[in-house]
Amino acid sequence: MLELLVVLVLLSFITTLLIQGMTYVAKVNDTFAREGHQRYLRELAFGWFSDAISQLAAPEQGETGERFRGDPLSFEAVTLSSVDRREGIPTPFAFRLEPEGPAAELIYVRRVEASRWPLLAIAADARFEYLDGQGRWHEDWPPVPELADALPDAVAVASEQERLFLMAPVQMPRRGLALDDR
């Protein structure tokens, strides 16, 4: 009878250890899954950002509505690689950083449809920067009126708080593409 009691105590001890171990593994797995999902969303949003910038279309000389314009919290332009995957079609778009408390929301704006897609929450100190042909960074684009019809060489989103600096180079500025060419 004493042996049976000892076996039951040992069995309950082992069962308790197994349940605690499985609970720990489940919590770790949940944490990894959450982090992986956040990393996936971040990579997807930054990928869309880079794709849209890499395929910017330069406006015709004097076309003010299609010019690239930017400041630290937003920019707008025309791209051949929009987030909604209309490849090769000149599509006006904008990216905005809208501060909301301790974070800022990275938002993609489809200008023609007047719709906004919140993509990602990043640090509130995030800002856009623009690289000119001489390798100088600017807070606003165009930095001088002579560059009104030009595209920057790259656009970056930067945040010291997150230690983030994502630079998206302009791959192929094309002239002569009008929004009416769709």
Descriptive account of the structure:
- The chain is α+β, with helices and mostly antiparallel strands.
- It has one domain.
- It contains 1 helix and 9 strands.
- The strands form 2 sheets. Strands 1-2-3-4-5 form a 5-stranded antiparallel β-sheet, with helices on one face. It has a 4-stranded antiparallel β-sheet with strand order 7-6-8-9, covered by helices on one side.
- The longest helix has 53 residues, at 2-54.
- The radius of gyration is 25 Å and the shape is elongated.
- The chain starts with a helix and ends in a 13-residue tail after the last strand.
- Residues 175-182 have low confidence and may be disordered.
Please specify the SSE layout and strand pairing.
Blueprint: H1 2-54, E1 69-71, E2 74-79, E3 91-100, E4 103-110, E5 115-123, E6 127-131, E7 137-138, E8 154-159, E9 164-169
Antiparallel strand pairs: 1-2, 2-3, 3-4, 4-5, 6-7, 6-8, 8-9
Please supply descriptive tags for the structure shown above:
182 residues, alpha+beta, 5-stranded antiparallel β-sheet, 4-stranded antiparallel β-sheet, 1 helix
Category from helices, strands and their pairing: alpha+beta
Strand order of the largest sheet: 1-2-3-4-5
Low-confidence stretches: 175-182
Quaternary state, please?
Answer: single chain
Rounded to the nearest angstrom, the distance between the terminal CA atoms is: 88 Å
Helical segment tally? 1
Number of folding domains? 1
Strand-residue proportion: 25-35%
- Helix percent reads 25-40%
CA radius of gyration is 25 Å
The number of strands is 9
Mean pLDDT: 84
Q: What shape does the CA trace take?
A: elongated
Give the H and E element order. HEEEEEEEEE
Q: Give a quick account of the main beta sheet: strands, pairing sense, barrel closure.
A: 5 strands, antiparallel
